[in-house]
Design a protein that fits this description.
heterotrimer; A mainly alpha; B mainly alpha; C alpha/beta; B: mainly alpha; 13 helices; C: alpha/beta; D-Maltodextrin-Binding Protein, domain 2; 2 domains; seven-stranded mixed sheet; 47% helix; globular
């Protein structure tokens, strides 16, 4: 009985401490946040609203947030009558493969750069930074001819290679910076205990670097899922098209864009990546090593 | 610091260390060499040729610096205007991104906000949604007759300008859209840094009688300086090379007046003349600019770090 | 009691059956041999296009029809979102399609880069004669034929029949209407004029001016005729137009019945119908100040080109497809499905098509058009031309200054890109 009484007392005391001024301040802060956020996500509200309309009703000169006769026709068309599933399958393939390949190739390299000193280390590091700044367009034609040379034109795996090449420099650099924040003593301890270099890397350092690895995987996923210019030029058969290409073509109709269809596909295409984003959010803050401020 | 026991096989150790290091780096080195360095070298080389679509498989020849002369030669050439526009865009936009990123990070890091996780999830949405989708949506919203923006303006009786077909209005829309797309990155980096600052620092400062502004200037700012500068550097590079926003909104503004550097390069390669040589020369010049920016940025961040 | 057919009955039935079987066999064999040439043609044809939405659906239906006629030709019909760029990267590398289709003004640049081949060897004179000469010339560059035409389009005068009983035949009547908008409309005319030299061209040509001449290679922006056209439009028409001259605003005025007439192309008809407007089509009014000359807008012709990636074993199949796709029957079908205006004489004159007022209306105007120049240099002219018009109509510069500046800008751009002018 006395527990509850004590609790009640504590709560009462707590509330007493909060002055009216503070309360007003707190409420207005939250209100401001809500208003700000509504303004920011207005385009998202608009696109969802557009996806629920029939074509005609969009071409009005007055704003209508809530569609007059909401209908799921657009979604129906996208899911059942367009090549959505082909696009989805292709996009997933490219994205997962890219993330996997980048992780596979970048992690050992970043580990080596973080743990070892070796010949040409500094120049290599600088060139990694340097490559990131080169405009992609400059490399594009050469890329293309390389792909043809390897027989990977109009091939999803060719796309994976291009994306990986683009993602490697930043990710090696970022992972290395991240590994740097993990004390070398851990590896040393493992090595002294008799582990091989590989073992030390895999079983000791990697598990601790989950945020960094998550960020790498995440950025790779993001880039591969969202890219459309290179994809639209490299892929030439409709069964290889990825989601961005499908979307872009829907926006390219000769006359007015068919907004309901475009919006419905946009919403469907965004949902997976938004979900992944929400999950990865917390890791992003930790894993973006440029944010590492220790000591 | 622990002292490593000196191994009797010292040389062998060094050799095996180097060997292992290179082994680990081998796949990435191979990929970087073939897929990154070779294309860069190739493309830099093309700048000195007269290559265009018609002679790409043979018949092109080296023309030395002619492309560069043509570009830089006359001050009224497109080149300088495109460069000027892009610099202006970058300067304005990066400032806006830092401003909003900083403001949001501090706002959402402060006490008194309920459901912080939900708020952060919402505010990060512009980054989460694929950029080209958002840009196309914004393009739709800025349409003169049926776009949402003008619908709202019309509703309150304000004028409804032709956003995408007027040079400076379109420039403004580029800034709005790109800031919307890019501020979450800044915010995330700064927030991450802010969360690394222990609250005791603030508490002891409050005890010493410091006001909020002082706390910000002397505790927060120095501690987030490094990540802030590095993030600014990265985003300056990305903003300078921005392609999607001008391309998707109105393909470089009315009559190409708003082409940014990358869009101009793209249009030169794929436009009516297909001038690879010229475009490569242009992009090489862009590369030099970008490297200068990068170099300066690194310098600044290093100075900032030393000041600590 | 069992019914046993008599001998006579059996033999009659047997005879009849044999005759029927023989007839069927003969007819079958005859049909087989008649279609044999078509069936015998084998090969594969890859076509790239940029059609989307309902146009793509209709085109794919036609591909199915083609496959029924030529079952042994494999057709790959691919839609590309970045058509021009993809072609320019793929064809030189040998990975491009056999044919591709778009509006004709790419001919010059693709021909210069040797990405497309002349088809004079594959197309005989009889086929060439199927088309209207101006449409056929759209696929020509420097005297060689690179493409066959499929459909044409041009802007013309669209008027709201509920507001306008007789469309203006000449500019004097037009100006009367501008001063007194008919039918209670706020504006007599909706005219797209912002950064849109394409929509302004009829007036330029009416005054005898031009933007670019394919044959001479000269830019005509600062000719007296062009400048006169700009001044005339700015003084006589512009004051009576709605202040926002952009495409979206102006077309919206017509759809919302605030403007009685509009200068627009076939692509607007869909929206006009959606707005429930009973509309009519008329020629752009004759220019009284130039002696009742008919202004000639630019004509855009959808054509299909032959790339250099065609393999020798596919030449026959590709020729067959090209002729079929640009042939009379297909043009009729596309006209019915999409409202495209045919350019094959027999298709255009076909009674079915002749009943369609939209096709007839635009078709009339198309007789008075000039094809958009297909030289690649034209790409450097559009920008300055649009700028000049914008400067004049906004009052920023006088016509003389604006168009002279534009001429310099265009020539400079051409020199930068091509090394020489003309």
């Amino acid at each position: 009985m006395s527990h509850i009484k004590k609790l009640r007392q504590r709560i009462a005391v707590r509330f007493q401490k909060i002055s009216k001024k503070r309360l007003m301040f707190g409420i207005s802060k939250n209100l401001l946040a809500i208003i700000l956020e509504l303004a920011i996500i207005f385009p998202i509200i608009w696109i969802v609203s557009a996806s629920l309309r029939s074509y005609n009703s969009l071409l009005t000169t007055t704003l209508q947030i809530i569609p007059p006769n909401p209908t799921l026709d657009a979604y129906y068309w996208v899911i059942f009558q367009s090549s959505f599933w082909t696009w989805l399958r292709n996009s997933l393939f490219v994205t997962l493969f890219t993330a996997g390949l980048v992780l596979l190739v970048a992690s050992p390299a970043a580990y080596a750069m973080s743990r070892f000193t070796f010949l040409a280390k500094k120049p290599l590091l600088y060139s990694l930074v340097f490559i990131q700044f080169v405009p992609g367009l400059l490399m594009f034609i050469a890329f293309f001819y390389l792909l043809i040379f390897f027989g990977l034109y109009d091939n999803l795996f060719g796309l994976v290679l291009i994306y990986t090449a683009f993602l490697l420099p930043f990710n090696i650099w970022n992972l290395k910076a991240f590994f740097d924040t993990i004390p070398k003593d851990i590896d040393e301890a493992a090595l002294i205990d008799g582990a091989s270099y590989l073992g030390a890397m895999f079983y000791v350092v990697f598990p601790v670097s989950l945020p960094g690895i998550a960020v790498t995987a995440f950025f790779s996923f993001l880039t591969a899922w969202n890219e459309f210019i290179v994809a639209s030029i490299v892929l030439a058969s409709e069964e290889n098209y990825t989601i961005p290409i499908g979307l872009y073509r829907l926006n390219q109709t000769t006359y007015q864009t068919n907004w309901p269809l475009f919006s419905a596909l946009s919403v469907l295409a965004s949902i997976p990546i938004v979900i992944v984003f929400m999950i990865a959010q917390r890791y992003l803050r930790a894993g973006l090593a440029i944010g590492a401020v220790k000591g | 610091m622990n002292k490593k026991p000196k191994s009797p096989h010292f040389l062998k150790d060094i050799w095996s260390r180097n060997f292992v290091a290179y082994l680990y780096m081998l796949p990435s080195l191979v990929m970087l060499l073939i897929l990154n360095l070779y294309p860069i070298a190739f493309s830099v080389g093309i700048a000195f040729t007269n290559m265009y679509l018609g002679n790409i498989s043979g018949g092109w020849r080296f023309i030395g610096l002619s492309n560069f002369v043509a570009l830089l030669g006359s001050f009224s050439s497109e080149f300088y205007y495109v460069l000027y526009k892009t610099f202006l865009f970058t300067a304005i936009n990066v400032s806006l991104q830092v401003l909003f990123g900083l403001a949001f990070a501090i706002f959402y890091n402060s006490k008194g906000i309920f459901g912080k996780k939900i708020h952060l999830a919402i505010v990060i949405l512009p980054w989460a949604i694929p950029g080209y989708i958002s840009t196309l949506i914004w393009g739709g919203m800025f349409q003169t007759a049926y776009g949402a923006i003008n619908q709202i303006l019309r509703g309150v009786g304000l004028p409804t300008p032709n956003w995408l077909n007027d040079e400076w209005l379109a420039f403004g829309t580029y800034n709005v859209v790109n800031t919307w797309l890019a501020y979450p990155f800044m915010m995330t980096v700064i927030l991450g840094a802010l969360q690394g600052i222990s609250p005791e620092l603030y508490e002891s400062a409050t005890i010493d009688g410091a006001r909020s502004w002082h706390k910000f200037r002397h505790i927060t700012l120095p501690l987030i300086r490094r990540p802030l500068l590095l993030a600014t550097l990265l985003t300056t590079n990305t903003t300078f090379q921005q392609f999607n926003v001008p391309f998707l909104l109105n393909n470089g503004g009315p009559a190409g007046r708003n082409q940014t550097v990358m869009l101009w390069g793209y249009n030169t390669i794929f436009g009516s003349g297909n001038f690879y040589g010229l475009a490569s020369a242009f992009l090489d010049i862009v590369l030099i600019f970008v490297l200068i920016i990068g170099f300066l940025g690194l310098r600044v961040s290093r100075i900032a770090e030393e000041e600590r | 009691m069992r019914i046993v057919p008599s001998r006579k009955a059996i033999s009659t039935i047997a005879a009849a059956a044999i005759i029927v079987i023989i007839v069927i066999a003969v007819v079958g064999v005859a049909v087989y041999f008649i279609t044999l040439p078509k069936r015998a043609i084998t090969g594969s044809v890859t076509i790239w296009h940029g059609l989307t939405g309902s146009e793509e659906v209709a085109a794919k239906a036609r591909i199915i029809a083609f496959n029924k006629e030529y079952p042994n030709i494999t057709v790959t019909f691919t839609g590309k979102s970045t058509l021009k760029e993809s072609l320019k990267v793929a064809i030189p590398a040998g990975k491009g399609p056999d044919l591709f289709t778009w509006a004709h003004d790419w001919t010059g640049e693709f021909a210069n880069a040797s990405l497309i081949l002349p088809i004079d060897d594959y197309i005989d004179q009889a086929t060439k004669d199927l088309y209207f000469p101006s449409a056929l010339s759209a696929g020509m560059y420097k005297g060689k034929l690179y493409a066959l035409p499929i459909a044409a389009e041009a802007i013309t005068l669209i008027y709201n029949k509920g507001m306008v009983t007789t469309p203006p035949a000449d500019t004097d009547s037009l100006m009367d209407m501008l001063r007194n908008p008919p039918g209670g409309a706020q504006y007599a005319l909706a005219h797209v004029a912002k950064t849109d030299p394409y929509h302004m061209y009829p007036w330029v040509s009416g005054f005898g001016g031009y933007y670019y001449n394919d044959t001479t290679g000269l830019v005509g922006l600062n000719t007296t005729s062009t400048i006169d056209a700009a001044n005339w439009f700015n003084t006589n028409i512009k004051p009576y137009l709605a202040p926002d001259l952009g495409y979206g605003s102006q077309t919206a005025l017509f759809y919302e019945k605030k403007a009685a007439m509009m200068i627009g192309g076939p692509w607007t008809i869909g929206d006009v119908r959606k707005a429930n407007i009973t509309f009519g089509l008329a020629l752009i009014p004759k220019l009284v100040p130039k002696g009742n000359v008919l202004p000639m807008p630019y004509e855009g012709v959808k054509v299909m080109w032959w790339t250099k990636n065609v393999k020798p074993e596919n030449v026959e199949a590709v020729t067959v497809f090209l002729k079929w796709w640009t042939g009379v029957d297909n043009q009729k079908a596309l006209a019915k499905l999409l409202g495209w205006i045919p350019v094959a004489k027999d298709a255009y004159n076909d009674p079915d098509i002749a009943n369609d007022p939209v096709i007839v209306g635009f078709g009339n105007q198309i007789k008075y058009t000039t094809p958009i120049p297909s030289a690649p240099q034209m790409g450097d002219v559009w920008g300055p031309a649009g700028q000049a018009w914008d400067n004049v109509l906004s009052g920023a510069k006088t016509a003389t200054v604006a168009f002279n500046d534009a001429e310099t800008a265009a020539i400079n751009a051409i020199k930068l890109h091509y090394g020489r002018y003309p």
